[in-house]
Every structure is written in C-alpha cells, then in structure tokens.
Amino acid sequence: MFSLRPVLIALSAVVLLNSTSAIASLPVSVNGEALPTLAPIVERSRPAVVNIATKGHVDVQHNPLLNDPFFRRFFQGLGDIPQRRETKSLGSGVVINANKGFIITNHHVVEGADEIQITLHDGKQLEATVVGSDPEADVALLKVKANNLTDIPMADSDELRVGDFAVAIGNPFGLGQTVTSGIISALGRTGLGIEGYEDFIQTDASINPGNSGGALVNLKGELIGINTAIIAAGGQGNVGIGFAIPINMVRQIVDQLIEYGEVRRGMLGVIMQNLTPELSSAFGLDLHQGVVISKVIEDSAAEEAGLKAGDVVLSINGAPIKSASAMRNVVGMLRVGEKMKMEVIRDNKRKTVTAVIKDKEEEAVAGKKIHERLAGATIEQSNEDGDVFLVVTEVEQGSPAWNSSLRKGDIILSVNRRPVTTLEEFRQVVGNRDRQILLNIQRGRSALFIIIQ
Q1: Of 1, 59, 195, 241, which has the fewest beta carbons less than 10 angstroms from its beta carbon?
Q2: Is 25 inside a domain boundary?
Q3: What is the pTM assigned to this prediction?
Q4: Angle at 223 between CA 218 and CA 227, to 5 degrees
Q5: How confident is the model at residue 127 (pLDDT cuts 50, 70, 90)?
C-alpha cells in the first residue's frame, strides 16, 4: 500500500529548510525603510523601571484559648508558638523624579515592609523609605538617596484611546526586567472590587505576578499607568486582562503623599446608585447612564449645596459621570475645600449645583466615641455602588475591641440583632452603655457573632 508519510516528512523538511533560510535572510529594511521595532522606546524607558524586594513581619493570630494557662498545659513540649513570621515580596517601581529620588509603586508591594531594597536597571542596589502610601487606590511613594537616576516623562492619560499600543515593563516572577506589549483594551474600568478607588486602564500587554508597580508606557516612551492587577482563572497567570492605574490619578495621589504623607479625601455626603433603565423610565427620562442620589446626609456638603434625593447627576466639573463608582472616584480625588460643579436633572429640568467638599472625618469614627467597649477600633461608613455599610478599618492590638475578637476588615451587619448601615444607626442602637453589645459581622466569606463585654 502506498503511504503518504514519507512524502509528508519530506515536504515538512523542505518547508522547515525554506523557513530557516527565510529567517536567516530576513531583511533589515523594506523599500529603504527600517522594520518596525519597540527597541528605542524600551531603551529609553527601562532605566526608570526598578525592581523592589521587601522584608517584613506580620503578627500570627492564635486561638484565644492558647492564652489560657489551663489550655496551654495541653500543648507543653511543642515549644514556644511563634508570635510573628517573616514576609517577603517582589515587585516593581518607576522613578518619576530623578533629582528627588521619588519612585512610585503599588501599596500592596511595600505594605508591612520593614526593609525595602531597590535594584536599578544596572544592578545597583539602594535602600528605600516610604514617603507615603494610599491603600484605597493602591499607590505608594518611595524615596532613595542616589545620583544619576533616570526618570520617565508622564503622559496625559485622559488622552488615551482604546486601541492605542502599550508596553508593560516590570519584574514578573522575580526574573528581572521583562518587556511585553499589547494595546489598551478598555478605559475607566470600575466596580471590579480590586481597590477602593478604581479607574483602571485595561490592557492585554502581559502582566504577571511581580509586575505590580511597574510601568505601562505609550509608543512615545511616556508613562501612562502603573501596572496593578490581573484577572486570571484560578490564579493561573495572565490571560490577557491586566489593569493599570492611570498616571493622571497617580499624579493627584502623589501630590498629597508628598505634602501630607497620606491622602486626605473629602466627603460630599450622599448615598448614590446607578441609573438603571427601570429608574430612568420611572423618572420619565430618556437616559441610559448617570447616577441617582438616593439620600443626602444631614449637615453634609451635598445638603449645603442643595442636592436632593432623586437628583440625577450627569457630570462633575464638565466630565460625564456614567456610574456611582465613577462618581465616587471623582469625589475621592478632590481635596477638602475644593469645589465641584455638578450638572443634575431634577423634575425633568437641568440644574447646576456647586458643592464645597468637606472633611471626611464624619465617615469614620473611633469606636470609643460610640461605646467605651469598642475602644481601639475605627469604624467607617462606606458607600460602594449605592450599598452603604459599616466596616472596621483599624483595630489596635491589645485594645478592648481587639480582645473581643474584632478585626480589621470586619463588616458590621447588625448590632443587638438590629441591622445597621450607618454610624448614626449604630449610635442609636447601642444607646444604653450598660448593656453588652452583640455584633453580627461578615469576615471574608464567613459570618459570625461577637459579644463585646
């Protein structure tokens, strides 16, 4: 029987040889013009991208029963149970001011770090200190003492368009500097639950673990964003959906970190939600995007400006507002005392309302001000996409709140079996300071009751 296999093998060999020959003779130019390459852009940008290695320590949480001498005797012979463990992290950063030694990266790259070591493009290693950090937007500003640093020019990220080319430079998996390329897949991504304030650039330029804090640059070699996160099925690496913080947003945060060492966000004082097709129809509007004010907080900047429940916000300071999360981002980037001009629809009529941003102190309160048994905890009233809830933002170790097992990140669902979503409701329910406090909290994916005695 005649077989095709030898013929196919022979043809494959011919194709392979021809391909190899073609590659070997690949021209350096076509019609007198050089072949396109990203090399010049990369050569200009890479020296400004640094590798970041950190060391830190975290407290190890144990079952409270281990602190009881009666139960401790059952664990004799096991040695001392460690109270702290060492942590290590790898990431990337970008030099934005060579003269002052300023480097930006992600907050999560340096969070809890006791030591921060910077490795420059040429292999030189430096110690860095944290100037300030903003966990809500995941941005940190570092400082090093060094000469001859190379920084990178910044672009205007508001001018980005979907389809623009982008180059990501970072330190994936600790391999050293790596360059990937792609395009801008989407802009203004919000509501992902990755950070507190989100306005992400989405790109298909490959971003992997260790790229966090690295540079996303355009074809001019200008910085357009800071690589921050990826979406990956089961955490199995990059699948072409990466996110970067726009450099314009980073600029605003860095200015405050330099001035205050932290970001001091203001408060408008509203509870808001997305304008759905159903709400648009109920209000008699022919709109598909916008934000509905569902409640105005008493004595807030919104109330003083004359905002009312039912107002539909179309734009802020001339920029269209498409969602509640987008509006939260805009307000969160404004400083106390800044004005925001809002175009709203009320009773099918367009109005312009101007509010002066107030201090955010009313959004968070020390637990001791609510009840002495909550001393050591800070409780914040949060608003995400129209959902209002109370979250524990800080708990001082060894405090009454800590000893009652309250922890940072706990979401308070109810107090003494009564649902609460605002600080005022919390105060009203607690009321009698002689009673114990029964909290129903959500911690991660579980829920539990805690008795504050």
Answers
A1: 1
A2: no
A3: 0.66
A4: 95
A5: very high
